[in-house]
Design goal:
mainly alpha
Length: about 280
């Protein structure tokens, strides 16, 4: 027989309802707002670092050679203060993962049926994105600087049944996500993440332009990553393709340093908008 924590008999429904109430309480807690704000600051720092490394790459002064979260985190660990900041960033990203998991399980109560399932799926995908960044941050902190050997992940997937098509499909999903980011930037839908005071006046206007530049630039960069993944799958290339590869591809185009500089500044603007979102959080 199932028993409740106080030793009394209970049913699965009772326990489920109590778990639901506990989850709802956590999701609505003002403390969660504080944790989310900390996480968004960490997310903003991550994008400022990526923008800075990309700008260095554009003009030939990047010491890491990787305009990605990994390259940005590696630059941080070059000093004691930077290492301390990176620990804060890593913890902040974990807080964002917890937020999105709670949101997927107990949030989106204003939606019904399929719409709610889709919204929950989006929250899980965001949790996975933040989790990947957190993993990269912790790996950078705990590693001795050695690179990871072994077979690239893309090559491993290509060896699976229908692996080529899985890689192509994954690349198309990445392109779709990049397109969604561009749409959110152009349509200004990102403003829904700010409370009313964050949308008005001169400050609100600055936030709006940070958001437009940030979402469009990030969408373009992510879209290029997707194109490279699709190309790798279509041509049976086993290379992993990431943000550093996408920005290096931009660098090879006519006026490449200038184009890459614009994208780098845009990614930095996304970081600044993350700070604005932390200050004017509207869930």
């Amino acid at each position: 027989m199932l028993r409740t924590p106080d030793g009394h008999p209970g049913s699965v429904v009772d326990i489920s309802s109590k778990a639901r109430r506990a989850g709802d309480s956590a999701e609505d807690s003002p403390w969660l707002d504080v944790l989310i704000r900390v996480g968004l600051v960490a997310y903003g720092i991550t994008h400022l670092l990526i923008g800075w490394v990309a700008l260095q790459l554009a003009w030939g002064s990047s010491s890491s050679g990787k305009a990605s979260s990994e390259g940005a985190f590696q630059q941080l660990t070059s000093s004691g203060l930077g290492t301390a900041v990176l620990w804060g960033v890593a913890v902040g990203l974990v807080l964002l993962v917890l937020w999105r998991l709670l949101e997927a399980a107990f949030g989106h109560e204003d939606k019904d049926g399929t719409e709610r399932w889709v919204a929950a799926g989006g929250s899980l995908l965001k949790a996975a994105l933040y989790g990947a960044l957190a993993f990269t941050a912790f790996r950078t902190l705990l590693s001795s600087g050695g690179g990871g050997g072994g077979k690239p992940f893309t090559a491993q997937v290509m060896s699976w049944p229908a692996g080529q098509w899985l890689v192509v499909f994954g690349g198309l999903c990445v392109i779709g996500y990049g397109g969604l980011q561009i749409y959110r930037g152009v349509s200004k839908k990102f403003l829904e993440h700010l409370d009313q005071s964050g949308r008005i006046g001169e400050i609100g206007r600055a936030y709006k332009w940070f958001g437009i530049a940030g979402y469009v630039s990030k969408g373009v960069a992510v879209g290029i990553v997707g194109v490279l993944i699709v190309h790798a799958g279509w041509t049976h290339e086993g290379k992993d393709q990431g943000l550093d590869d996408a920005l290096a591809e931009v660098l090879q185009q006519p006026f490449g340093p200038w184009l890459l500089s614009v994208i780098a500044l845009g990614i930095a603007c996304y970081g600044l908008f993350s700070f604005a979102r932390a200050k004017h959080l509207d869930r």
